[in-house]
Amino acid sequence: MLISNPKVSIIMPTWNRAACIIESVESVLSQTYQNWELIIVDDGSQDNTAELISQITDPRIQFYEAGKIGIGIRLKNIGIERSDGDLIAFLDSDDLWAPSKLEKQVAVFYEYPEAGFSLTGGYNFREREKPLEYFYKQREGFKYGNIFISFFTSEASLLVPSLMFGKQCLPVIRQFTETNPSSDVDFLLGLALNFKAVILYEPLLYRRLHDGGYSIMNWEKGYLEGIQVINAYKNKKHLPSKIAKDALFRLYINYGEKCLLYKKRKMAIRIFLKAWANKPFSIVPLKKTGKAVLRYLKNS
User: Fold this and answer.
1) Of 193, 141, 197, whose CA–CA distance to 165 is shortest?
2) Domain range list for the chain
3) Which residues contact 281 (CB under 8 A, 6 or more apart)?
4) Do 181 and 74 contact (CB within 8 A), yes or no?
5) Tens-digit pLDDT profile for the chain (300 aa)?
6) Helix (H, G, I), strand (E, B), or coil: what is residue 65?
7) Quick check: 152 and 243 in contact, CB under 8 A?
8) Which residues pair with 63 in a beta bridge?
9) H and E: helices and strands count for the chain
10) Which of 144, 168, 143 has the alpha carbon at shortest distance from 87?
11) Any idea what the Cα angle at residue 35 is, between residues 32 and 39, rounded to 5°?
């Protein structure tokens, strides 16, 4: 049973984010729920991140220089080891939270005491208060229960900055950080295999898109990891073959579109053909392959 007014430990890994980390910290300071600590784990920044944070005098904020590690989940784990909260959340140092984010997620654990973790909705942005893509079509209400399959059917988003979880989840977190110390996705899926969850569809996380962001700089790595994850969970019998095939199809289509966006046209053709191999009766990948071939011929 969750205690009254639980403390939330917020872990914020950072690297060379002087241009936007203060906005992220301010979104924590602006929370309507005030019983929190913020542990900023610096990954060997070479800008003035440390100087900027030192000017904030709030005693709830800790700044820890970890040296250069370069692996996000390890930085998160360092923050977890230094935390003493009853609930744990993560925030990237270029993202923002709605002021009520913590308050609404804490309330979830009172209403659903069997839930191990909670996720929220949100949107991507480049300019503040100008949403681009929302994570969910639904922007109100909630979903409660086992959501593992939902991650593979596009009904749940694997976005760690929307996550809050209870201390009882820590053994699972540690298990996945030790067996796969490079993947945020794996520990989130591990949580979903072991605990029930609540998704609050309200947009409470605002995810900044910029050219130096991890998801843009590592877009190809992200898709390849997604393919590996789907195949791994299918092989472990956690994921039915039909759902795995559908998930791979969607991933290949999105991967191919991204290859076209970055003008990797030959790669796009190969990826669309892989999508077709997963669903040979679908004309979608054939149409997209044709589009990719035309672009390739036009620019060759």
Assistant:
1) 197
2) 8-213, 218-299
3) none
4) yes
5) 677 899 999 999 999 999 999 999 999 999 999 999 999 999 999 999 999 999 999 999 999 998 888 878 888 989 999 999 999 999 999 999 999 999 999 999 999 999 999 999 999 999 988 999 999 999 999 999 999 999 999 999 989 999 999 989 988 877 766 555 556 788 889 899 999 999 999 999 999 987 655 555 566 877 888 888 899 899 999 999 999 999 999 999 988 888 888 888 888 888 888 888 888 888 887 787 777 777 767 776
6) strand
7) yes
8) 40
9) 11, 10
10) 168
11) 105
197, β-bridge pairs: 117, 145
Taken as a whole, the chain contains a residue count of 300
What are the beta bridge partners of residue 36?
A: 8
Extract the tokens encoding 115: 């839930």
Matching fold, domains 8-213 and 218-299 = no
Rounded to whole angstroms, the Cα distance separating 193 from 175 reads: 13
Pick the CATH number of 218-299 from 1.25.40, 2.60.120, 1.10.860, 3.30.70: 1.25.40
Written as six digits, the tokens of 219 are 């877009």
Output the DSSP codes for 69-124: ---HHHHHHHHHHT---SEEEE--TT-EE-TTHHHHHHHHHHH-TTEEEEEEEEEE
Residue with tokens 């917020």: 10
Task: Provide the b/e sequence for 9-42 (b: ≥16 CB within 10 Å).
Answer: bbbbbbbbbbebbbbbbebbeebebeebbbbbbb
CA-CA distance, 117 to 95, in Å (whole number)? 20
Quick one: fold of 8-213?
Spore Coat Polysaccharide Biosynthesis Protein SpsA; Chain A (3.90.550)
